[in-house]
Amino acid sequence: MSRWSESLFASRRTLAVGVVLFVVMAVVPFVTTAYQTTLAMTALVFVMLAVSWNLLAGYAGQISLGHAAFFGMGAYVAAWLTKPGAANLPSWISLHPIIALNPVLGLLVAMILGGLASAVLALAVGPMMFRLRGHYFAIGTLALAAIIRLVMTDQRTLSGGSTGYYPSQVMGATDTYLVTLFVAAAITLASYFVVNSRLGLGMQAINDDEVAASGLGVSPLRYKMYAFVLTSFMAGIAGSSYALNQLYINPTSTLGVNWTVQTLVVVVLGGMGTLAGPLFGTVVFVVIDNLLSSVVGSLATTVEGIIIILFVILLPSGVYGYARSYLAEGTDREPALTEA
Amino acid sequence: MSPIDLLPQAVANGLLLGGIYALAALGLSLIFGIMDIVNLAHGHLLMFGGYVAIILLAMFGVTPLAGMLVAIVLLFAIGVFLERVLLDRVVDGGIEQPILVLFGVALVFQNLGQHFLGSNAHSTTLGFNGHLAFGPIQLSSSRAITFVLAVVLVALTWAFLEYTTTGHAIRATSQNREAARYVGIDTDRIYMVTMGVGSALAGAAGALLSVLFPISPYLGWSYLLKAFAVVVLGGVGSIAGTLVGGLIIGSAENVTAILLGGSYRDIATFLIFLLVLLVRPQGLFGSRSGGE
User: Between vectors from CA B266 to CA B261 and to CA B272, what angle results, nearest 5°?
Assistant: First the structure.
């Protein structure tokens, strides 16, 4: 049996929780209100963002504060591909022939191309950004995202400026939701395989000790780049699916620092550097966020900030990390997941 | 008038603004150099200082120059509080935890500002106008006064580090934390003072900036990046470098605004920041490599 499937069976509990979660999410649009479906949709976007950022920050140890740039890039590419005319782009890039042929395929192609655009952006800026380490990398990515947001806000033709951009609808809301659910599940599963693969081990090795890793022939730059490009691809897909579900985007709503903030909150809540952490974090975050906005109203962000602080100080391994170490007396510890 | 004719005036205004940037950056540089923490909430502390001046003027008619003193005292207390209650638990333990904690602090400040003072920008005024004229260049009195005050505060900070026992201990800690402990320096106390002084400088800069520009709750990130750009440009730990860096960033911003339009102001600063990081990571005057 391959190592992947071994570890997959070794964590039957995780697998079972995952399947249950998937089924629950799949019936949401059929049994709940439109508002609750929108909430579930937001949760899916958070899962994709959190899973992707967790790979880069939790496993490869590169704290990027520029995640929103890749999210926004994916969102805009999906918008341009479904409605190129509004940005004065040539009409041959339109995905409408594919959408007319098969809407599901059209939606998937839009999401994947959105992800690819972000991956290309990561490929272009990565070698520069990875000349920076630690604090400098964090603040450098924050600056990079700010530059991209400012330039896009200024390019009103491309971005719609503050008026925004309306991508055209590919499919009905429920169908779009279901496709997004499959894509989010695929991304989560992919992160599982990546972490348990040679690639994932390399990423964790450079996180643990860069010098030792390069001494053993694991090139830090190469593995950081793998992680960065993969992460950005996933963030781009998250952005595309957000754009095609919301059907309205603007530079602030997609490229603003908010997405970076919320991604961080979700991952820190759930447990950084654990596979199930982003899923737990998303559930806890969406519930808390919803409760907060009804209880504390416009002070919700303050409470979010306090939650980040409290978790980092008191529960640095997150909800999932804590639950796991609490339950870990049993036999089915997950081999590659024990590094928090 | 063509943009070229406006350049001398833009550079002069930028240099005066740069003095305040240097003041804000000095606080960030101190905290970074001594505690090895990037104060991600620095821009938001600056914003808070601006609000202190705004509120004092609006409610009690207090001039922002006195508001600045209040901001210094308040922000010193906030800085000490943040260090004692939060950072003390995460300092010296890797980079993720302080980054995340201070990110949380920044969110709290931003949201509180938004909640209590609204999303609109507010500003203060010194209450009198007038300007000094040097040929074609006119320096407004509010810009000139805020610049002088900023430079005085930078000089006072320098004197504090150079001539007081605590200042010596701070510099010793920045050179070698372990060795400082061996010779009996209480580094916990040094961290507390550093965070207090660093935050107070941000607050002073915010109060001075409120005279020149409207302060809104969303400015925190932008000023954090500007201050960090100045730190990187001047080199961590170099006060002269920070001053020169501030002047360069201030005038570069104004020149870009004249030549390319106001929306490119911040883009210019952030690009300079990234370029310096990539090309000369130790900064213009620094001895420490910025790559680490």
Answer: 110
Rounded to an integer, what distance in angstroms lies between the CA atom of residue B189 and that of residue B61?
A: 37
Q: What residues does each domain of chain B span?
A: 3-119+132-279
A301 contacts B110? CB cut-off 8 A: yes
Q: Which helix (H) or strand (E) holds A1?
A: none
Q: How far is CA A69 from the centre of its chain?
A: 12
Tokens 């918008």, residue?
Answer: A79
Closest CA to A150 of B87, B200, B268: B268
Distances (CA, A) of A99 to A74, A154, B129: 18, 31, 63
Closest CA relative to residue A183, chosen from A78, A259, A270, A261:
A78
Q: Are A159 and A153 in contact (CB under 8 A)?
A: yes
Of A139, A147, A312, the CB nearest to B228: A139
- Residues whose CB falls within 8 Å of the CB of residue A47, separated by 6 or more in sequence, listed in order: A184, A187, A188, A278, A279, A282
Asked if B263's CB is within 8 angstroms of A153's CB, the reply is yes
Contact indicator for B229, B267 with CB cutoff of 8 Å: no
What DSSP string describes A41-108?
HHHHHHHHHHHHHHIIIIIS----S-HHHHHHHHHHHHHHHH-GGGGT--GGG--HHHHHH-HHHHHH
Q: What is the 3-state secondary structure (H, E, C) of chain B?
A: CCHHHHHHHHHHHHHHHHHHHHHHHHHHHHHHHHHCCCCCCHHHHHHHHHHHHHHHHHHHCCCHHHHHHHHHHHHHHHHHHHHHHHHHHCCCCCCHHHHHHHHHHHHHHHHHHHHHHCCCCECCCCCCCCEEEECCEEEEHHHHHHHHHHHHHHHHHHHHHHHCHHHHHHHHHHHCHHHHHHCCCCHHHHHHHHHHHHHHHHHHHHHHHHHHCCECHHHHHHHHHHHHHHHHHHCCCCHHHHHHHHHHHHHHHHHHHHHHCHHHHHHHHHHHHHHHHHHCCCCCCCCCCCCC
Of the candidates A197, A128, A323, A299, the one whose C-alpha atom is nearest the C-alpha of residue B113 is A299
What residues 114-143 of chain A have any CB closer than 8 A to a CB of chain B? 128, 131-136, 138-140, 142-143
> Would an 8 Å CB–CB cutoff place B260 in contact with chain A?
no
Rank A15-19, A306-310, B59-63 by mean pLDDT and report only the highest.
B59-63
- C-alpha A48/C-alpha A52 separation (Å) is 6
Q: Which helix (H) or strand (E) holds A299?
A: none
A272 contact B CB<8A: yes
A105 Cβ under 8 Å from any chain B Cβ = no
Give the pLDDT score at A340. Answer: 41
A122 SS3 class: helix
Residue A143 CA to residue B277 CA, distance in Å, equals: 11
Query: Tens digits of per-residue pLDDT, B48-99?
Result: 999 999 999 999 999 999 999 999 999 999 999 999 999 888 876 667 788 8
- What confidence tens digit (pLDDT) does each residue in A250-275 have? 888 888 888 888 898 889 888 888 88
User: B270: which chain A residues are within 8 Å (Cβ-Cβ)?
Assistant: 143-144, 146-147, 150
Question: How remote is the C-alpha of A265 from its chain's centroid?
Answer: 12
Phi, psi of B3 (to 5 degrees): -55, -35
Taken in order A67, B87, A323, A206, is the CA torsion positive or negative? positive
Distance, in Å, from the CA atom of A111 to the CA atom of A80, rounded to the nearest integer, reads 12
CATH of the domain spanning B3-119+132-279: 1.10.3470
